[in-house]
Amino acid sequence: MKKIIILLMTLGVSFNAFSSFHMVPGLDDAKIKKVEVSVLEGNLMFVASSNALYKSEDSGLNFKKVAVFKDEEVKDIFLDSDLADKLYLATSRHIFEFGMQQRRLFSASDEQIIFTVSKNKEEIYIGTSQGLYRGDENILSWRKVAGLDDCSVYSLDYTKEVLYAATNRGVYAVADDKAKRLFITRDDQEDISLMTKAIKVDCFDQEIIWLGTNKGLFVSRDNGITWNKFHALGLNNLDIDVLAQAKFEKDAIYIGTAKGFFRVDIKVKKAKYIFEGVYGKGISDIEFNNDGEVYLATSKGLFGSKHFASFSEAEASNNILEDEPAIEDIQQAALHYNEVHPNKIKKWRKGLKFRGFFPSLSLGYDKVINYDSGVDRYYVGPRDWDVLFSWNMGDLLWNSYEDDVDTRARLNTQLRLDILDEINRIYFERLRLKNEMQATTLNSKEMFQKSLRLKELTATLNGYTGGFFSQKLREVSPAQ
User: Fold this and answer.
1) How far apart are CA 162 and CA 463, in angstroms?
2) Residue pair 209/199 in contact by the 8 Å Cβ criterion
3) Among 344, 373, 395, where does a domain finish?
4) How does pLDDT run across 158-192, given as a tens digit for each residue?
5) Hey, which of 21, 42, 201, 432 would disulfide with 277, CB 3.0 to 4.6 Å?
6) In whole angstroms, what is the distance from residue 459 CA to residue 426 CA?
7) What is the pTM of this model?
């Protein structure tokens, strides 16, 4: 993540390209799983947490809890595009319909887990751990789609003629109740390196299919016949959980990961990490409304941006950067203060190289006992000191403490990456916020709120660096 942000800074990505996200209030649950906005009634939206469903009829200003689920977890929701207020909800065990009536449509067996639900051409599709089910909601008669009996179906999307399914064995195209595999993966114990997790038919060109995996983004431009990995600056092998597109942006696709929210510019092949105002990193769903507003379902709540603008590349505000300490200085200070600097491990390894040359030392003080065989008698002598030196020559080749150092090095590296990730996010959000405060006309209430947020970010950086950030800030800009 450090490399992504620094590269974007080097390329001159403007700090005011995106409006800051805000947490949507009114939800009892912090861990939000799914969000759906009606394409027919823009003010209507549904939000699902792990065990509850919420409904808002005023674009998220107020929410009403519609249902609570006990002993089962919400997996997916799907809002009918033909009827504004008809929603299908999948829990781990059941499919429910919410609308003019509320009813249970499907129940899984004890061995099954439901992952997703969708509707296409008057038929409902249910992805489970034991295949794909298809049925008419009015008849409630369900049948399995042939060819997917032994698959776990995680994600569904469709064109006018074909339904595409992302499964643990690859991507399948479903037509006329038959499934054909297009993209092959394996999930046996010998090879679990590549897993398909999210599939998205391009909303501007239905011959293009996007596939999110645990090792980055793949694309097919010929209806799934051939696939290639989509390489973009800043994208790499991100573990992708969700894909989304905005109808007002033809050359962009948005991805949600455990590390946060990204926008991928398809044309120039660059990815931008968007973090301004988003506290939760685990993005489980992304939803755009007709006005270009975006909502993110995260592990820390629901976040929204009312004025979401498209990606732009421009010169960064030089005066903002000149008045701030360099990110490299803050990173180094945080690593030293939290004792996770790589030099710490280097010192340990250097010390181990010389350990074999130093003996083990034992010191004793005890009585001396002698035996006289001529008279068969023991004599107890006076107390005396003894010193013992011993060497283990094998330590010169291999020291058992190297295993301990290797283990601690791995933990140290993971902690270091987590700290750097958080430092980068806070540092650049602070820059964006300063730029926004200087470039935008704000009323007194908005300025007060942004000033508080600026102080909060500053205090967090001081906490990570032991006060070094404010000290350095005064050096580069005494007026602050």
Assistant:
1) 54
2) yes
3) 395
4) 998 899 999 999 999 998 888 999 998 865 544 56
5) 21
6) 10
7) 0.65
